[in-house]
Protein 1
Amino acid sequence: MTMPDPELLRLGAYLLGFIGFIAFNAAYLVWLERKEAGHIQRRIGPKEVGPYGLFQPVADGLKLMSKQLLVPEGADRFLFRVAPVLVMTPAVMSFVTIPYSDSLAARNLDLGLLAVFAFASVNVLGLLLGAWGSRNKYAVISAARVVSQNVAYEIPMLVVVVTVVMITGTLNLHEVAAAQAGGFWHWNVLRLSASPLMPVAFLIFFTCMLAETNRAPFDMAEAESELIAGAFTEYPGMGFGVFFMGEYANIVVGASLATVLFLGGWGCPFGLFPGLHWFLIKLYAIIFTVIWIRWTFPRTTFYGLLNLSWQVLIPLSFANLILTSALLKVW
Amino acid sequence: MNAYFRDIALGLWSLLAGMAITIRYFFQPVVTLQYPHEAVPMTPRYRGHIDLVFDERTGTNKCIVCNACQKACPSGCISLDGEKREGQKQKSLTRYELDFTKCSLCGLCVEACPTEALMFSKDYNLAAFDENDCRFDLIKRLEERP
């Protein structure tokens, strides 16, 4: 009897831990979303299934799983089936490099940031393939919207991230977070000595995160009142459920990235007791804000969305990049 | 160029103002009424179906079986009977039935009543599966009323 390969153990721990974490989040962010929406509208939200409606996600899951898995006639069966997985997998894989605390990360990759963005771009491919595979004009049109939206918002996001990389001088997410250790005045949001536009950069990143994860007010992908549920119109039961879980998993990835890149990762705002709990507090504060924004603003028009990106976010993020490089390298 | 930055600043400000409003609402108490578990507080002038008025002096209803309500009713949903008892000047009510399937809640019976023996009840949970559940025996309701 020999010990199993430590790499395999690590893989198993990652799969169990992070898939559990993601499944828990995907299920209970739906609950949080409904509760928060309820309280913003001064309602109660789910309350019947279990205490405080806590078993509501379980009930929703059972209902989705009991539905028949129809494939539309003439659809590309393979693409239709594989598309939800293509949305879910990159979200799961992005968690590989995210450092949750000083010692808790599945892999400490030197190119971690690059890996996250590489995985994140597959998400759009999944939506596009799902719409294409379901042989539905409405789905294809709204998938085209998703792609142009994601392309438009990928640019300012990456430019802002390049700024952060220039400040910290590394693509390793662990090092990015570790460089912000200490109080909140060390965080990248407030690193005004590197660039006075850093708070703006954080806002740009946050806006792009909302758009990339197809959240309101940028939820053109599933504008159910205009586009018949958008890119996944034809998906029944758990196929739709997986798309939905993918969306919430992407929110968790986006919020984790915002935490690591701008809010000091696992560091405490006052420099005391850094650790996993601070990461989770920041993570859920961001997710709370994301939901809060969703229930505050109505959906924008598509032109408004593209104009915001090309006319405001991209020029500002480039201005920030130039200013940062000037401050860092010239003076 | 100035207008461009003013637009951005104003837009951002209006977004923050909107979020301030929603977060205020988030922390305010919920106003949902848990309907099947909680009763709606009824306004005093709510006009539900009719009920007999309880007379505290006699300990029974005020009806003198004059049939004015029955005659006033446009949809014919009231039927009542009375009898003359020993030592009484007026008739006493023995049966008062309201067919709520026909009632249009016009209240003409209440206005027609000379002794003010009828009033509007505050009941609103009046959906029923059986037609017979909509035929109310108002004498029984008066006796069962607290």
Protein 2
Amino acid sequence: MSEKHRADEADRRRRTTDGVASETVNPEQPDAVEVFPEGEFDLRPGADDCYKCTTCETSCPVAAVDKSFPGPKFQGPEQWRLKRKDEIEIDPSISECSNCLRCDTSCPSGVNLAQMHNTARGEYVDNQLSTFSIKYVRNRILANYRTSARLASMFPRTANFVMNFKPVRWAMEKILHVPSERDFPEFATQTFREWWSERGGAQVTNPDKQVAYFHGCYANYNTTEVAKAMVRLYEYFGYEILVPPQKCSGTPMFANGMLDDARRHAETNVENLAAVIEDGADVIASCTSCSMALRNEYPELFDIDGIETLAKNTFDALEYLRIHEDLHGAIQDASVSGEFAEEFAYHAPCHSRNQGLDRQAIELFRDLDGVQIEDVGDSCSGISGTYGWKEEKYEKSMKIGAEMFEHMEAAEGTTGMTECPTCGMQMEHGTGYDVHHPLEVLEAAFVD
Amino acid sequence: MAPTVVVIGGGATGTGTARDLAMRGFDVTLLERGNLTHGTTGRTHGHLHSGGRYAVSDQESAIDCIEENRILRDIAPHCIEDTGGLFVQLEGDSDEYFQEKLDGCAECGIPTEVISGEEARRQEPYLTGETKRAIRVPDGALDPFRLAVANAADAIEHGARVETHAEVVDLLTDESDVTGVRFRRQGPNYRGEGSEGDVETIEADHVVSAAGAWAGQVAAMVDVDVVMAISKGAMVVTNVRQIDTVINRCLPKDEGDTIIPHETTVLLGANDEPVDDPDDYPEEQWEVNMMIDVASEMIPIIENARMIRAYWGVRPLYDPDPEGTEDTGDVTRNYFVLDHEERDDVSGFTSVVGGKLTTYREMAESVTDHLCDRFGVDAACRTHEEPLPGSRDPSILEEYMGRFDLRSPVAKRSVQRLGDRAPEVLGSEDPNPVVCECEAVTRAEIRDAIKDVGADLNTVRLRTRASMGNCQGGFCTHRLGAEVYHDHEAPTARDAIDELYQERWKGQRHTLWGRQLSQAMLNHMLHATTMNHDADPRLRGDTIDFTAFDAGRKTSTVTDEGSTNGD
């Protein structure tokens, strides 16, 4: 399929969720009519696929703990079906959705719930949420975590002290409605990118095996050990690693309906990553919400040149190795001792589940000598990125997470494992366990 | 002593006539054999005509349409969605006819605006790329159910009596003078009076037949010939609104080329086939396919869109010159008031035939004027300036949007359906969950409708749109039944559920492919298995041997060891 064909195909798919083209707009013919204004797709036809079967509602973690939440069937196909053109009202309950997107994956008939929810949230924030409201300001700050993290990592020690200093947190709760119960993540004293340039970039050169690392914000500013583990592990397998310029993947922005912010960041990401893909690299991410955004939300929400190429060539770091290397064979002969020789209670993040990756760590580590791993079930951790960082949602977030905490307590081990930074936060918050990323364990298994 | 009049037919024309007569002081009884809108009105395309459609071929009708269009916007805004309309010219369609259409509209006083294909596609992105030009006209979507109910309600306000489920079986005569009607009840009326099989008579000074396609049958009761030129048309309902404007094809031969957005759906239609019997004509699959094909030429996405049902209606056309007409499509859309005393030497009897939904009010006015002449009543018509109930204060729509603690799209739809009755219906303190999810109908609306119409869920459906969404009642008929059960016995509620479920099923039979077929199967499994709806022992008269089932926990006996057995 040629690039142009692919773009056309994407265009068609976006225009109508059931693959019926009204008429594709050909970028090579500027005189073609652009009938949908930038980013305004009519999602009503997507409701055609819904049989009202309610599977989505049974998979919704918010609906399970909040009786007043109308659930994904209403937020998605029903609300869109009821809309008329030029109607701007979106039900405010859309902001109670945590954006776990389990509904999107669970739907047996392919209703594009993720796109419907994200678009509705964007419209709600644009048209109905006052930009002067505390809620808007708070959400904007949370959604633009990268901006805050960049500032904080200039003075990491000060930030670490201040952000968890009780009086400061009390004030934040009072003014910005950020719950004081939560512990702010520690900022690394050296960011991953600083470390990367200090070490002189890639240590392995291999034009046939190139990966571009999308580290996201968290592995860059906070858990740099995950990013470093990824680098050493991939170099062990002979990959040349590129770290192109990049911004936030947009996940927290989608979840807060800040689609303009997300688009700005997406433009940088698509431009830089599509360029390295053109040169033969694949893109990998260590955070499952980042890979999810690049693969799933980008082509659904934005129409940027090269976005389809990026979506098709993005992988989760673990998934990619399992595809391209005999990881299972290698695991048989490896063993782990020391810090990572643990019994892990593993939680699969919703966004890894949505990519079909929820069993990968379990399948991999049960054959690894020195490591025990136990799946703590398929419940949602409840934090959902910035969701659990809002005072009015903190209780709900903990209620959703209750089942996971319970299963973690019941598991043999007392160390957690997950691919998602905020799920890790929640696991730690609810149980007090240390939490690690699968890449750290793999590094311990293969790299001396 | 006011003259007594019986109006036969509870469609738009009948209810409109009853209203006008009652407003001018007549003592009116309206008889309808089914629900209100049971006949043609309930099976219309719901097109508020600008007249553009007839601007070339039938200018007299076109002028009536544009005049009534303006009046209805004033008196019944809550029955109208002002979508606007387009006559689209596709590549290859005649330029000459396009010009004729424009000229015709100008001659009839219909405002038009020519826009480019590009502009048309900006307004309606799903229009085909073949769109060359379009003419904007003030078409709209008209809700026939709300319209007839509002007319009937206002007639009752003015002292009329409205009898539904009351079929006229004979006209009473004294020599060649019609003196009243004999009718048989098909069931209790909306106030729960009477029961099935009751035969009653009503004496009247005059009988008006507004029976539409059935006018010939009514006239035949007194050996009067009214030869109707009825024709059927199929309409297909899509699941979502692909468009928000009425789209017509700008072609001289126009069958099935009007696409009308209605509430959450779009109606495709309608073809034009002559039939003999308005109660018995074939409903054929090719008609449904043809409607989809014709509409897809203008809106390609419709070709693969989900269709939720198809239905047929009959046009109550009357051809004053049957010799000269070759095709039902050419029969005039004009209406005629037939004074049978003048025409057939039968006094006390008038028929009103032909016409369109858009011109119902004018038809009612003509009949009423005619009766005022006859009885020497000196009262001017006011129906063109007195708003219908629910429409008195359009600003209320805005005011009550979202005030009732409902989800906003839900509140919006509710308030649009209820008009200025919204506060009265939605203002209660009780919890108000959504009962019909597809159409966002809440409990308060359903209870309000049941209070008015009794255990007749089909009429509740007409008033509220409950069960008219994409699951076609699969997920809500039983919930609606539960609301009936508040004021009625269980068997009554069950019968109401069955009747509605059947009615919903009937309309889907011609659209069972793809997604709607899957939906139908899911509905069937839910009702047949989960709810045992198809094998209810109560209905089958079976006796069930309950003892054959697990008898549950036996009485346990405690043994010496303290353990129990029998678990």
